[in-house]
Amino acid sequence: xxxxxxxxxxxxxxxxxxxxxxxxxxxxxxxxxxxxxxxxxxxxxxxxxxxxxxxxxxxxxxxxxxxxxxxxxxxxxxxxxxxxxxxxxxxxxxxxxxxxxxxxxxxxxxxxxxxxxxxxxxxxxxxxxxxxxxxxxxxxxxxxxxxxxxxxxxxxxxxxxxxxxxxxxxxxxxxxxxxxxxxxxxxxxxxxxxxxxxxxxxxxxxxxxxxxxxxxxxxxxxxxxxxxxxxxxxxxxxxxxxxxxxxxxxxxxxxxxxxxxxxxxxxxxxxxxxxxxxxxxxxxxxxxxxxxxxxxxxxxxxxxxxxxxxxxxxxxxxxxxxxxxxxxxxxxxxxxxxxxxxxxxxxxxxxxxxxxxxxxxxxxxxxxxxxxxxxxxxxxxxxxxxxxx
Length: 389
Ligand code: SF4
Fold this sequence. Notes:
Elements: E1 19-20, H1 26-35, H2 42-52, H3 66-75, E2 76-77, E3 82-88, E4 94-99, E5 105-112, E6 117-120, E7 124-126, E8 141-144, H4 147-160, E9 174-177, H5 187-198, E10 210-214, H6 218-224, E11 231-235, H7 241-247, H8 256-269, E12 277-283, H9 291-300, E13 306-312, H10 326-338, E14 343-345, H11 359-363, H12 370-380
Parallel strand pairs: 1-2, 6-9, 9-10, 10-11, 11-12, 12-13, 13-14
Antiparallel strand pairs: 3-4, 4-5, 5-6, 7-8
Helix pairs in contact: 1-2, 4-5, 6-8, 9-10
């Protein structure tokens, strides 16, 4: 597994800068305790305290000796991102705005369904991939989140639902790395955080219930197949290169054929041969919603074990795209189902609280002035939109 968060001995020395234990795996915590002159098994105790019991105060960790707790006060901390706001929708959707070091904000959304509760987690502040229909992409890229900032989102949600209490029901049953950012552009930190999500002594989520969603960073997806087998979602949004080059610019570097092939390799390496990729396809009125697109998509995905999730576009200020009509949505779905695909349609949730993903964070505390730069750009030029007959 990549070992990214702690890779120099200096990080263990006592301590002008304290080590944040929140994002450390059991193995890295073991190294940390060894450096303190303690036994490695302390790592498992610490992971349980932080991620199973939600305890961040060393003095409350009753199975640690007083002298160890004193050492921890000197050299370590458990430092969480700060919740700026938390809004509840009438349909049970919850949305957080979270401030991270440096003052920028990220978003996190919880979506309850009949048989599960899914937490959508961010991996970066902003995003460099600049997909033309995405509010996050329009704000540009600020920085990667570190492992603590990624796993800290799950910690915040678990605490918010009282999940750390003894015998409490697990409200967050699934995590999707589908919030702000492209997870594979922050590879090591995302892999480390997902491993903590699946760690038995932490959140214990099964690999089926942790999903990484990518827009197609093909070399990193190939690499991922060697280090984990979490569930995979691929953000396609177009059935041919010409259209996808415009909607998802990374396609100019790694085209659809390469992307789908890489996803197929990933799925085939999974030990459980029943697993399928989820294909995410955002439908925009008269852009990618025609019958011809549905038929092209059916051919493109022929060799990939997958199900298809259709997402009606959620308009945001500054975007020229429009939501797909119900007629076009139904026609698109029917064509794919007719070709034998399992197709789901994402229902709009949290309408009363939610802006498009990324919009909320972009509107506040934008210290890099990304939003202003984007508004200036909008004022100066037309946003290109491909409209088809
Ligand atoms: S859709 Fe995903 S990959 Fe594309 S710009 Fe938005 S956050 Fe980045």
